[in-house]
Structures are given as structure tokens and as C-alpha cells.
Amino acid sequence: MTTIELLQRSIEYIEKNLKGEISLSELAEFEGFSTYHFSHIFCDFVGMPVTAFITKRRLQHIIYDVQNGSKLIDTVLLYGFDTHAGFFKAFKREFGCSPTKFLKINTAKKPKAVNLLRESRVKLTQTQIRQLLSNWDIETKADICNTFTAGGAMKSNNSWVIGDKYIFKTGRNIAGLKTHIDISRALQKSGMVAACPVKTKNGEDFLVENGRFYVLTNQIIGELLNPEQRYTGDRIATGKKYGEAIGNLHRILKSQDSNLDVNDSNLFDTVINWALPETKRNMEQWGCPLPDEFYSDYTENFSKLYDKLPKHIIHRDANPSNIMFNNGEVSGFIDFDISE
């Protein structure tokens, strides 16, 4: 069996035994690895440590079962938590609020089975990546690592870290890639750190094979802040840093407006029908709700002002999953593919 097949077998074992004892050492021994090696490869493929994965799956099943009529305390004990207090602490760390509050503002979805074998079919092997990297004048023996979103909670299937300098990415939205490249270069000329493409040996910005693009960009140093980092601690200071960085970004984009060509769209519909409801849900879930008057006033005044506001290019997706932090400060923005 391949490594990924062994890990899939472990995941299926975990899923079947969420209501019982699951020993990391027994899992490792069953698959023929040392505990250290098993922990390392599990985290590499799944995106989180074994114990964190088990806890997250238990929490997902508990909240779904409770939503569908099970008693909370009985379900908590059934899934292996020794105390309600221990469960509550783990749940709040994962979701930012109590189970009761979570169910008031969310609908718990039935946990989907994790299938590494299915996901692996859309990923390139390291051998394939190294072969593609031979089109660039770089050290092709550099380490290849997976990339993660949301502070390491979810693996990206279309990008990889190459050594300590580059990001390698693939996709099919070539028009979006060209937009990203144009904006990144404009930002770089204005003095902002940006993920610009590294030229291929043939002097091209990216490679195209079988309808897919492959692009190598310089790496922006830093990490994405996860929800706990954003919404706990000094969240006002963190929010201010996000806001100032986004403002500075769009000041530069405005200055480059005449040099860039992007899609036009109805931003009003996006803000009213998606951004505001999503903001309200997240703020309530993580214990920092805004008064209802904020949303009603925003909607009313934005409706009046929208047609009068000046238009210029925006990132379009300047959310925390696309904003890098390094040493407590914003270090750069990524993914300008859908800028408008």
C-alpha cells in the first residue's frame, strides 16, 4: 500500500472509533510507522496533527447530533470527552462561541467523510512538480511543501512552497492569473511587496500545458492568521492593522487604475447580499457582535451613496485568507485573480 492509502485507512479507522479510545501510538504501530514519523506524515497530508483532527471530527459530529435532537451532555460523553467543561473549551477554541450560540446562527452540516485518495487525484506528485520546475532556472532539488489556508487548517491542492523563496501554483483561470500578474507588478512598482512571477527559461510569465497554467512566484514571507488569532486577544489592534493595510492597498490600486484592465461588476449586490450577512454571522459567532443598527444604517446609507461613489480597482477578496502577517504586521496580499 502507498503512504496515502495507509493514511486513508487510518482516517477511516478514526471515523469508525470516534466514540471510543483512539491511541496515536496504536495507529502508528498498526500502519508500521514510529509515532514521530506517523505524526509527521499525517500532518503533512491532512493539514493538522492527529489529535487535532480527532478532536475536530468529534466536535463536528457532536454539534450535528445535538442539532438533530441528541442531548448535549450525553453526546459529549458518548464521543469521548471526560467532562462538559473540557468539551466546551475545545468547542470554543474551534468555533469561537458556545454550542448553543453556534446553533442559533449556523446550521450544522453532516460531517463529510475525508477521502485522501480522491483528493490526491487532483494533486501533482513531487516528481511531476520537479519536472515542471525544470522550465525555470532555479534549484529543482529544493524542498517541496504543501501550502495551507486559514492558518494551517486546510490544505491547498493547487499550490506548493518551493524551498524558502517561491510558490508554485496551477489552475485553469488563465485570465484571472493575468490579472493577478498585472496587479502584482503594479504594486511592486509602487513599493509594496507582491507575489510577482518568475520568468521561465523562455522568458514567459507562466507555462501552459493541457489547458492548465503553471506559475512560479516569489514567496511573501509570513502566515495567515486563523480565526482564534483574529478574534481573540487584542482584536481591535489586529482589525486596525487589517484596515490600514487594505486602505493602503487600494490607495495604490487607485493610482494604477488607468494602467490595469479588470472586470466591472455590481459591488452593491455583493456587499448587501453576501458580505454584510457573512460579517454579521462571523462577528456573532466569535463573540464580538455589532448592533443591528450598524447593518441597517450601512445598508440604507450605502444604497444612497453607491451610485455617487468613485470607482476604481479593488482586490475583491481582501479577507484574512489572502492577507499575510509577519512579526505582528501585515506583510503582503495574495491572490488578485478576481480583482474588479
UniProtKB/TrEMBL annotation:
Keywords: DNA-binding, Transcription, Transcription regulation. InterPro entries: Aminoglycoside_PTrfase (IPR002575), Homeodomain-like_sf (IPR009057), HTH_AraC (IPR018060), Kinase-like_dom_sf (IPR011009), MarA-like (IPR050959), Prot_kinase_dom (IPR000719). One of its GO terms (molecular function) is protein kinase activity. Residues 8-105 form the HTH araC/xylS-type domain. The keyword Transcription regulation applies. Signal peptide: none annotated. Residues 164-340 form the Protein kinase domain. PANTHER family: RIGHT ORIGIN-BINDING PROTEIN (PTHR47504). This is AraC family transcriptional regulator.
